[in-house]
Amino acid sequence: MGKFEKLYTDQKAENDQLQLEKKKLFFDFQEYKSIAEMELAQKRQRITFLEAELKKKEDTINEYVLEKNALLKAKENESQANQLQIRQLRTLYDTEKVKAEALASENLDLRKKLGLVTAEKDVIQSTMSQTIENLKKQVDVMEFKSDFTPSLSIHMNSLLSLNKPDAGWLLKSPDYEQLNTVKNKKLIMIAVIGMYDVGKSWFCNNFAKKKLLASGYTQTTHSLDFVFPSESEGSSIGIIDTPGSNEAIRVTDEKLIQMLEPYEEQSNKKNLEQLYFSRYTKLKNDAKIIQDLKERFIREITDVLVLICNKLSEKEQEILYKVIKHHKEVAKQRMQEAFESKKEQRDTNLYIIHNYKNIAEIDQVKQQMEKDLMKSFKVETIPMFSQEKPEFKDLNNLIYFDQFGITHLILAQDGSVAGNYFNQTTFAYLKEKLNTMSQRTQVDVGRFFLDFCNRNLPNLLKQDIKLKFNKDQTAIIKDGDSKPIVLENLHYDEFGNFYFSSTDFEPRYSIEEKPLEPGKKDITVEIEVVDSEFKANYLKGPEGMYVLQIEGKKHVNLGVDLNTGAKYQNHNREWGDFQIKIPLSNENLVSVSKEPKQGTKSGIMRYTFTFEKLQAVEI
Fold first, then answer.
1. pLDDT of 463-503, one tens digit each?
2. What pLDDT, on a 0 to 100 scale, did the predictor assign at position 399?
3. What is the biggest distance separating any 2 CA atoms in the chain, rounded to whole angstroms?
4. pLDDT tens digits along 67-121
5. 412 neighbors 439 (Cβ within 8 angstroms)
6. Can you give the pLDDT at residue 564?
7. What's the rounded Cα separation, in Å, for the pair 359 and 412?
8. Rounded Cα–Cα distance for residues 308 and 198 (Å)
């Protein structure tokens, strides 16, 4: 019994163990089953996704295949069309080739005929050429005779040219016999002035309705040109054209340098930089004196002065005010001359013409007029003609009268809308004014200019100079007894008045003008004379102008002082001999004083001159 119990117990224990293992296996199975089902679900989901992606790829491939098929179809159609066009072009080429061969054959026949005609033409042309040439010469002669205008040009390239007997200032005229006929005529002299390339020659040509002068950049800056249109072209007039003066100074011009070198200081030639500056100063003075001489001559000989400007620049405005100032002086002088000689006063007229030669529209011209006229002058607008002229009904009929009593006129681009509006009436107005002038001048221009130079050049240069004609009267030269002309230092104010200093160094000074009681004024000159030995005097020049003249020498310590051992270096003070002439007034001198009476502790000398206006005395 005990043996069977033990066996039962062992068998039961083994059976329980098997049950436990069975349960474990069941649980493991369930776990593995769950994992397998999950993985299966994921696989199925992945398969579904891949199937969808595969579907998309298939759709894309199908679309691409359809697109390529369509493109291939289009290319095939295009290729068929090109082949058709090529066949058509080949057909056309064959047709044209046949035509070309026919034309070549025809051309060969024509060339044979042309050879025969050319031989005949050469014979005819040889005969005709000489006939045509002879006719042209006859026409040129006839045109020259009918278009000839007496003229004279004085070429004033430099004052130094007067020092050369074989050079001088050349007088040029295309026909001196015709020019001599003008000397016996009484003319109205018109001078046209202005800066370079403002349209002066164009104005002269249009005013005379004839090409009298070359215009633009072809003219020489230094000439003084006179032309005398015939009476059939209007009033008996002489036109003076003065090419502008704002050219660069020709510092390296070989001809000018050769004339300048004999009068240069040897010390300056060692310093090339100083040499160029010295030449620039002297040649600038040369050009300034020639321009001033021309302007003075024009003021003396002319009855009508026409100043032409473009868009008003600061430089043109400076010239304009200078011309107005001088015009007033000439008018006063001619009034005095008429009073003293008891003759009719000679006309003195000034017209300022604003030549907007690059402006074509009327509105643009008026906008520029607003800047140049209305904002630079006090202008009154008045009718151009005393009575309306039907032929000018739709054109500009206004002139512009400024605060100085000067008439301003307008021109615009030739041939433009603005030119048609302004130009015709401006020229008509000027010609009408000339026709009303009674005073006329009879003058030998060349001789008058020579006499004028002999009266004025010595005073301008402060040198003893006399000019004359050469033997054949084709140039103005310096008289053999006169000393050579020397260019010295020149100083001028904003209105172009100038004077000379004969030395390179000049002490600084100032001028103060103070009004006193009516008709009187004080002019005080303060001059720096520190470290200077000097003397001062005043004199009355040949033109009635009082001048303060100061001459002396300024000392500056240089190098080493042997007594003290002091070194003087790194300074920029000027020193040397000086001589200056300061113009004061042409009125009556009442008194002169100076401060201090003795010595110059402050380094400043003050000279005071009291002037009073000349009073007319009744007889």
1. 788 899 988 888 898 887 878 887 765 555 444 555 554 44
2. 92
3. 197
4. 888 888 888 888 888 888 888 888 888 888 888 888 888 888 888 888 777 777 7
5. no
6. 65
7. 6
8. 7
Confidence of residue 232 (pLDDT cuts 50, 70, 90): very low
Other Cβ atoms closer than 10 A to 506: 18
Using alpha carbons only, what angle is made at residue 272 by residues 267 and 273, rounded to the nearest 5 degrees?
A: 110
Q: Determine contact, residues 202/506, Cβ cutoff 8 Å.
A: no
What Rg, from alpha-carbon coordinates, does the chain have? 50
- Measured CA to CA, the distance from residue 42 to residue 48 in angstroms comes to 10
Are 192 and 240 in contact, with CB atoms under 8 Å apart?
A: yes
The answer to which of 59-68, 429-438, 483-492, 592-601 has the lowest mean pLDDT is 483-492
Q: In terms of DSSP bridges, do strands 520-528 and 304-309 run parallel, antiparallel, or are they unpaired?
A: unpaired
Unique residue bearing structure tokens 């200077």: 532
- Joined together, the tokens standing for residue 183 give 């000397």
* Predicted pLDDT at 119: 74
The neighbouring-strand residues paired with 350 are: 305
Residue 476 amino acid letter: I
Paired sense of beta strands 349-356 and 407-412, if any: parallel
> Is residue 123 within 8 Å of 117, Cβ to Cβ?
no
Q: How far apart are CA 193 and CA 224, in angstroms?
A: 11
What are 168's two structure tokens? 């001088």
DSSP 8-state symbol, 301: H
DSSP label of 346: P
- Find out whether 507 and 580 touch, Cβ atoms under 8 Å: yes
Sign of dihedral through CA atoms 227, 228, 232, 235? positive
User: Looking at the predicted structure, is the pLDDT value of residue 233 above 50?
Assistant: no
Q: Give the orientation angle of helix 445-461 with respect to helix 272-301, to 10 degrees.
A: 130
Share the mean pLDDT of the chain.
80
Question: What's the token pair of residue 343?
Answer: 């003759």
Check if the beta carbon of residue 519 is closer than 8 Å to that of residue 613: yes
State the CB neighbour count (10 A cutoff) for residue 528: 16
Backbone CA torsion sign across 159, 162, 164, 170: positive
Q: Please, which residues have CB within 8 angstroms of residue 503's CB and are 6 or more apart in sequence? A: 489, 576, 577, 578, 579
Separation CA 210–CA 202 (nearest Å): 10
